[in-house]
Amino acid sequence: MSRYVMKLPDVGEGVAEAELVEWLVQIGDHVTPDTAIAEVLTDKATVEVSAPVAGEVVALHGEPGDVLAVGGDLIGIETDQAGVESSTPDDGENEAGTLVAADHSNAEALTPSDPPTTDSATMPAARRSPRREGGGPIAAPAVRARAKAMGLDLATIPGSGPDGRVLHQDLDRLVNSVARVHPGAASGLVSASDEGHRIAVRGVRRKIAERLSTAWREIPHITYVEDVDVTELERLRAELNERSSDHGVRLTILPFLARAMVMALADQPELNAHYDHGAETLTTFDAVHIGVATQTDDGLRVPVVRHSEGRGIWGLATEIGRVTAAARDGSATRDELSGSTITITSLGAMGGVVTTPIINPPEVVIVGVNKIETRPAWRNGAFQPRQMMNLSSSFDHRMVDGWDAATFVQRIKRLLETPALLFITDS
């Protein structure tokens, strides 16, 4: 028998560290080379790490929430497998572990709630939640974080998802059952504690905090806001949706905006770029890979519509729908969550009047979409009701002058206000 010390493998190109989300095994468990042992999170994606050898788990190096360095000790396995060294090499070769995409495809949408604190005497009876073999209850990281903040034990909550996975709706169901027993608590008539609740910032939220802090600290933003008359575009969009149901997807404003951005970037390619401040270089790209900021159960993600320059309106709509759905259900790959050259951010109908979006580094532009609303506009000597929408776009002022920023947005505005231009492919 010998002890095999597995190192944390490189879980993504250029990744130096990863957060330990959850152990999927515990000391004393027997593992085989295909056993998933841990779930880790990078700024790209959540992945599962598999054991490289068969044996008994004798050491776990780290607690959930710890940030571990690539190449650092991850797990100790007592093994009698022939030809196994006592520890993994430092070059991160295959024996350091096998990676598979983590499955969060059953994560449900977050339902806001403010439940009362309960104790075991008042909690409804519940069976214990099913567990992974040798591990804890099955639940996505966001569900675990929410349950912890609510003071709930996941092991006592019956899961309604596949294989007994605990979902957000299971937490809501438990809270509602408590409210029926204690209606005063649900109506807010019970005095709340004066003490605050300290919640550790972990997982995707910590990565979001790190990236946004860096972007806001290092990038001098300039935000340019312009109103756009989308009356004709909305009329065209409604007609296309009515006549083209065979495409299997409904058109939103986003594919039209993406097409307009591609056409505007053809005249200003320096905006489709990455800026490296340390190397003092601006890398421009011929390919337009548009990131689409997407709210998910685990926080903000930016899936990427690759080669947007080669897609028409329907192709853009289909791919936007596909990658955003993958981001929301947790099935998006690392490649689908990285490599964007410019980003769109939209809150849909909640888009407000003006926003100040933060740039997604190392990009130099982010285009924000605000809500469409009917406003009076002066047309042909009289006020007319028009469908109006604001674009709130931010630029890295180190690389983009105000004139160039305004020119870019004005180009997009002209294309959206004259939507027939979006279908011209020989310009």
Describe this structure in words.
- By secondary structure, the protein is of the alpha+beta class.
- The chain folds into two domains: 2-101, RNA polymerase II/Efflux pump adaptor protein, barrel-sandwich hybrid domain (OB fold (Dihydrolipoamide Acetyltransferase, E2P), Beta Barrel); 219-423, Chloramphenicol acetyltransferase-like domain (Chloramphenicol Acetyltransferase), CATH 3.30.559.
- The protein is built from eight helices and 19 strands.
- It has helices at 141-150, 168-181, 183-187, 203-218, 231-243, 253-267, 313-329, 402-417, and strands at residues 2-7, 17-23, 30-31, 36-41, 46-50, 55-60, 67-69, 73-79, 98-101, 221-229, 273-276, 281-284, 290-292, 294-296, 299-301, 304-305, 342-346, 365-379, 382-396.
- The chain has a six-stranded mixed β-sheet.
- Helix 6 (253-267) packs across helix 7.
- 38% of the residues are buried.
